[in-house]
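Thought: the user asked what Thioesterase domain-containing protein looks like in 3D. I have the sequence; next I should run the structure tool and report back without guessing.
Action: structure_tool
Action Input:
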Amino acid sequence: MYVSKKEIEVRYAETDQMGIVYHANYLIWMEVGRTALIKELGFSYAEMEKDGILSPVVDINVRYVKPLRYGDTATVHTWIEDYNGFKTVYGYEIFNSAGETAVKGTSSHICVDGDSFKPVQFRKLYPKWHEAYEEAKK
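Observation:
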């Protein structure tokens, strides 16, 4: 299984009144990880959107294990947890500077026509991307 790794320096603005990373910022970091994975596999969300195709989140699951704080370095590991040619489930594990798990999660996505929001067959529209996902999840 291919795992993308992306480091993110925790900025002060990402923390809450308790001095820890605000919970919603982990979702942004998951997106950063997902985008990095897609780019490393040779593809781009931006190119997909130029085709009029969007990839909304249809489900998200996040488990907060250990807090990250300002000045820490978060390392986002992202992989393809499950893929069937229509829906993709990305897996995430975010580590703190000490290499300890801070967050675990998944996000599920489908592709839709940008105008009608009707689901489309990802594997048919993007056969090379489909092949890359099949290979990356092994």
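Thought: the tool returned a structure. Summarizing for the user.
Final Answer: Structure for Thioesterase domain-containing protein predicted. Helices lie at 25-40, 45-50, 122-125, 127-136. The domain at 4-136 is CATH 3.10.129.10 (Thiol Ester Dehydrase; Chain A).
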